Amino acid sequence: MSDRRKFIKDSCTACVGLLAFTSLSSLLSSCVSLPVHSATVTNNLIQVPLESILPDEQMKIIRSKSLAYDILLVLKKDKKHLSFLMKCTHQDNILVATKQGMVCNLHGSHFDLNGDVKNGPASKPLQRLKTIEENNYINIYTA
Description:
11 strands; 2 domains; about 140 residues; single chain; 4-stranded antiparallel beta sheet; alpha+beta; 7-stranded mixed beta sheet
């Protein structure tokens, strides 16, 4: 193989590798490992103790064996916390939490941290659950 051909081949291989690494880095940076709080639902209420929340936490997944879908709790500094059923409004698929919101891996719908659709095919916002901070708990009402 000529030096020129080898140089072109090596350069193209390096470019493809760099492009793949950059794409993978971008995808992985949007992934987030969120803490999971195991909870029980009693009379349509989940109570998350404030002491279980770290000072720098912005989101927490709430999981209960009695619910078909997890709940994403978005923690706000003004104590006006939000919580959403992690269920895509397009075809009821389980959602994955990211730093920017939630993603449906089935058809690609994206939702922001207010539950609004940012990218379809979903057209309806996520189901928001009544969430109130009181008496050292964050209360999430499931019905």
